[in-house]
Amino acid sequence: MIEQTAVASKLEQAYQLRCVGCGQVAADMRQNLRCLSCGELLEVIFPAWNSAQRPPEMQPSALKATWKQRRGSTLPQDESGVWRFRELLPALQPGFEPITLREGNTPLYEMPICARIAGVETLYAKHQGMNPTGSFKDTGMTTAASFARQEGYRWVACASTGNTSASMAAYAARGGLRSLVLIPDGKITWSKLSQSLDYGALTCQLKTDFDGCMKVLNDVVRRMPIYMLNSMNPYRAEGQKTAAFELLEKLDWQVPDHIIAPGGNLANSSAIGKAVMELYELGIISSLPKISVIQAAGANPLVRTMRENGGKKLVPVQAETMASAIRIGNPASWRKAVRILERTAGTVEDVTEQEIALAKAEIGAEGIGCEPASAVTFAGLKKLVRSGFVRKQESVVLVLTGHVLKDAEYTLKFHRGDLFEGDLDQKESAALARQQRAPIVLEATTDAVLKALEQAEKKL
Ligand code: F0G
């Protein structure tokens, strides 16, 4: 008994939940995951890191060596690209194992063709779509679902544009939890919907948009003991931080000038920002990258907030974009994102539907591919180079958030020329047409195929 109390108080010192609004440290989380005093979001902080007497195992060289060494291990916690960095994550209590699908460990790709198109010398893509359920959500879900199980919840729930729900359903199933999914009816892709069904979630398609689903979910969790796994959950951000840890480790802890992330509910960009600030605080990196956030022009509340009032008050919008993952008008984590933009001197930009489609095809033609919401990063980069915010010789990392197979319908429509009907100017149509590769239906003869090859050869 005495021993258990000692362990508990050590863990309490290891991390705390603090409100991003009023700064108060929370003793507990309400079910809507907000501060009891002011209603703002919470974040995990590690007060012990500020101490002048950090233990030797928390020194930069020791941490780097530990993380590297774990890459050769076959323990589930070490095989996970998230839990491999567990010194910088909130710890589960003794006796609780993480729920892991061996998430993380995603590639950092060089992108020479896209670099040339954008006009920069060094361009990488950190492809978080290469996670077990095909999106970056898995890195945050392994941490938050593990804490849900530790808290003793039977049910977990989320509102989603499709990727969170796919990921949550998978991790709940792996962890022996039931899951409730609220998605906007008809507004998420078939592949994402099919994932949540296959992983056994109770899937409810609500006749509203994402923001409407979020409202209903907030009500449901007030009335039932269900644990919310939306990105406001502070444990989600902790796992999502590891994308930045991984990419910096791959670059031998040399900091790129820019990291560019897509913005929806604005949790991912905030998590990446939190990660680099923590690495900086711990002396693992010696400067901060500029973190910029790109949104679709039809779903650009952060862009409007920064442009119209410098980040003081959210400007919600009625969201509309074919990049359905980021069709969000009232983002929960906007305050966290503003703080990251300010601290890292990043910027915001928005991009049109045509710019997104072209960027997605260009990333595809590099042999990489991603879903439309991820392609906003490359479309945004092109604009940031044109405006001079990103300079030619600077190094840039794009965060690609979802796998190309997450939205095959969009890709097919693009290549068949069915994505946009009628409202393109000539220049835009020509740029898109250059990337289009519609399938060709032929008679089943060798001659027909050889002729198609000949014609393709002439086009090059
Ligand atoms: N990219 C993809 C592929 C996404 O699924 C999302 C968000 C984002 C970018 C934006 O990330 O919200 O942290 O700013 N998808 C959520 C979902 C909202 O429900 O799947 P964010």
Give the SSE layout:
Blueprint: H1 2-14, E1 16-19, E2 25-26, E3 42-45, H2 60-69, H3 76-79, E4 108-110, H4 112-118, E5 122-127, H5 137-150, E6 155-159, H6 163-175, E7 178-184, H7 190-198, E8 202-206, H8 210-223, E9 226-228, H9 234-240, H10 242-250, E10 258-262, H11 267-281, E11 290-296, H12 301-309, H13 334-344, E12 348-351, H14 353-365, H15 372-387, E13 395-400, H16 408-416, H17 426-435, H18 446-459
Parallel strand pairs: 5-13, 6-7, 6-9, 7-8, 10-11, 10-13, 11-12
Antiparallel strand pairs: 1-2, 1-3, 4-5
Residues 135, 160-164, 231, 262-268, 325-326, 371, 373-374, 401-402 line the site of ligand F0G.
Total beta strands? 13
Strand content: 5-15%
Backbone CA Rg:
22 Å
Helical run tally: 18
Widest β-sheet, arrangement of strands: 4-5-13-10-11-12
What proportion of the residues is helical, as a percent range?
A: 40-55%
Characterize the biggest β-sheet: 6 strands, mixed
Task: Write out the distinct hetero groups bound to the structure.
Answer: ligand F0G
Low-confidence stretches: 1-12
- CATH architectural arrangement of the domain at 108-134 and 236-434: 3-Layer(aba) Sandwich
Tell the overall outline.
globular
| Category from helices, strands and their pairing | alpha/beta
CATH third-tier fold name of the domain at 108-134 and 236-434: Rossmann fold
The CATH top-level class label of the domain at 108-134 and 236-434? Alpha Beta
| Straight-line distance between termini | 75 Å
- If you average the pLDDT, what whole number results? 94
